[in-house]
Design goal:
Elements: H1 13-23, H2 31-50, E1 58-64, E2 71-73, E3 78-88, E4 94-97, E5 99-100, H3 103-107, E6 115-116, E7 120-126, E8 129-135, E9 137-138, E10 143-151, H4 171-185, E11 189-192, E12 198-201, H5 206-226
Parallel strand pairs: 5-7, 6-9
Antiparallel strand pairs: 1-10, 2-8, 3-4, 3-10, 7-8, 11-12
Helix pairs in contact: 1-4, 2-4, 4-5
């Protein structure tokens, strides 16, 4: 039997919303159903941003440094910095490792006006974007900060024919996560049936909400495990003395 030969399956936003409502056994009826589902999708994706590093949100970015300037605010959609090095421009670009320190360690440096090739950097998570502090302060205009930027996941907007900013492998988790969120907004009410027994009506029962949450947890866990870096991890014990 012939196969399609294609690998382009995806879902647009309205597909995800309809799938989620169907999993809740709720019919998508009015315009507000779309509004509240879109809001929940954005909250769900924001939660994913906070949960470790999503590999598809990593970008290699280069920031040309200014001599005598120690701090740089990274523009949106930068969320944080995973790793960085100093690139020295010349006849051939050369990269030098740079150590990440905490913002507290940076504040404790006694003379932040010292200039040279930066060997350390700290990241302050500000409301308007992450701020990178370099030490020593760059002393030459030939220095660049070459870094892996962790960016935000793109918003879900009113253009429901857009595709969500997630890879194919995360679509099951996106649908099941939205279904769980919507079930929390559409809780069933307990009433007394004609036979005198209590029953759940007009929404998703507590048991069904638990099952939707469990399904989401399973889908998301599988997607995150599949998204992990396959490089080997080697741990070497520190054999020095005193505090490190």
């Amino acid at each position: 039997m012939a196969t399609s030969g294609t690998y382009t399956f995806t879902l647009d936003v309205i597909d995800v919303i309809e799938e989620a409502y169907e999993r809740c056994s709720i019919e998508l009826k009015v315009g507000y159903d779309l509004v509240t589902a879109r809001r929940s999708l954005n909250l769900l994706l924001t939660d994913w941003t906070l949960d470790d590093v999503n590999l598809w949100t990593l970008d290699q970015t280069e920031l040309v440094l200014t001599s005598g300037t120690a701090s740089y605010t990274l523009a949106s959609p930068a969320f944080s910095v995973l790793d960085a090095c100093i690139r020295v421009s010349g006849s051939s670009d050369t990269d030098y490792a740079i150590e990440r320190i905490s913002i507290e360690q940076y504040l404790e440096l006694p003379d932040k006006t010292t200039q040279g090739r930066p060997v350390q950097f700290a990241v302050e998570r500000g409301r308007s974007g992450p701020v990178v502090y370099l030490y020593p302060t760059p002393s030459a205009a030939t220095y660049s900060l070459f870094y892996y930027r962790i960016r935000d996941i793109q918003d879900i907007t009113v253009t429901y024919t857009d595709n969500p900013d997630v890879p194919k492998r995360f679509l099951p988790a996106l649908c099941s996560g939205l279904a769980w969120y919507l079930s929390e907004k559409n809780k069933a009410k307990m009433v007394t049936g004609s036979d005198g027994r209590p029953q759940w009506v007009d929404g998703v029962s507590p048991q069904d909400r638990l099952e939707l949450k469990a399904r989401y947890t399973e889908d998301y866990t599988k997607a995150k495990e599949a998204d992990a870096d396959r490089a080997s991890l080697f741990i070497r014990p520190w054999r020095g003395y005193g505090n490190r």
